[in-house]
Amino acid sequence: MLKAGVLGAGHLGKIHLRLLNESEKYELVGFHDPDEISAKKVVDEFGYRYFENINDLIAAVDVVDIVTPTLSHFDCAKKAMENGKHIFIEKPITNTLEEAEQLVGFQKKFGVKGQVGHVERFNPAFTAVKDKIQQPMFIETHRLAEFNPRGTDVPVVLDLMIHDIDAILSVVHSNVRQINASGVSVISSSPDIANARIAFENGCVANLTASRISLKNMRKSRFFQKDAYISVDFLEKKVEVVKMKEAPETPGDFDMILQNAEGIKKQIYFENPDIAPNNAILDELNSFADAIQNNTTPIVTLEQGTKALRVALQIIQEFN
Fold first, then answer.
1. DSSP reduced 3-state for 205
2. Per-residue CA distances from 127 to 167, 182, 245, 273, 313 (Å)
3. Beta strands 86-90; 114-117: pairing state
4. Contact between 169 and 304 (Cβ < 8 Å)
5. Where in the chain is the domain with CATH 3.30.360.10?
6. Dihedral of CA 233/191/314/79: which sign?
7. What is the pTM of this model?
8. Distance CA 192, CA 185 (A)
């Protein structure tokens, strides 16, 4: 088992503490949080070991799980990597692109592994169809959330949209050619609603919408490709896969046949992939343990986290 320690014991940090404690791949050593009053409440409620000094925690573990505010991600990760520790770091990877690129360099310099917490990659609905998403040419995403004061210190792009940016970059194997975007601040000092259009060099276009002042929650993505339409509901953990193939010469009574203006006939059929219930955060943490123990590439690398941040920051620049 890998010895793990958590930096940050806020809302998400407490979830990570619980899951690392439950995991069969980690031994939870303890946590550090600069807010000693809040930290002692966590100790009283859950019994986890509290380290007053961050250096003592880092020295006692193999893996440092960084669940602190984004502004401190770089400093925490740098300190851990300099001490030869593997890092799991919540999204976005860092506050600036320069910091993210430095972490990628540290990873090679100090011979450690890193993974970024883009948890939607482990959503069972997405994993059920990811291999079916092949050369999508149009993508549409909607990530809408009811207002929550937590997270409003950063633009909605870094708070919500970055989930969809990362998922899109994982299935579109092409460089970004152009980005157009707009954002509106309604309640916060930073944009609460944003829309972005990302054009890729291979011709794919992705249209992303994110809002944190919606009346209802929604997390849906739609992928359109030749002879297929794939819809992923990240919130309800449901998928729709609609495909087309050459129509049989003699269609059955219940076959759905479409004919275009040129007279070409296609048969529509549906696939229903199995969706296995899971805890996505536990899965991402366990996958990182597997990557360390088997010396394989993590599912969401620091390089991929950096690419998602780069696109997110380009979108934010378009607001100005």
1. strand
2. 11, 30, 24, 10, 26
3. parallel
4. yes
5. 121-279+310-319
6. negative
7. 0.93
8. 5
DSSP string, 179-194: EEEEEE-SSSSS-SEE
Which residues, including other chains, have CB under 8 Å from residue 140's CB and lie 6 or more apart? 206, 207, 208, 221, 222
User: Are 167 and 130 in contact, with CB atoms under 8 Å apart?
Assistant: no
Query: CATH 3.40.50.720 occupies which residues in the chain?
Result: 2-112
Domain 2-112 falls under CATH 3.30.70.1060: no
| Cβ atoms < 10 Å from Cβ of 167 | 25
- Do β-strands 218-225 and 228-233 pair in parallel, antiparallel, or remain unpaired? antiparallel
Instruction: Copy the structure tokens of residue 294.
Output: 């088997």
Report how far residue 168's alpha carbon sits from residue 206's, in angstroms, rounded to the nearest whole number: 8
Edge-to-edge strand order for the sheet containing 205-211?
176-184, 193-200, 205-211, 138-144, 218-225, 228-233, 238-246, 265-271, 256-259
User: What stretches of 118-273 adopt beta strand conformation (E)?
Assistant: 138-144, 176-184, 193-200, 205-211, 218-225, 228-233, 238-246, 256-259, 265-271
3-class secondary-structure state, position 172: coil
pLDDT mean by block of 10 residues, the chain; 320 residues: 97 97 98 95 96 97 97 97 98 96 97 98 98 96 87 80 98 97 89 96 98 95 95 97 78 71 76 92 98 98 98 92
What is the assigned CATH class of domain 121-279+310-319?
alpha beta
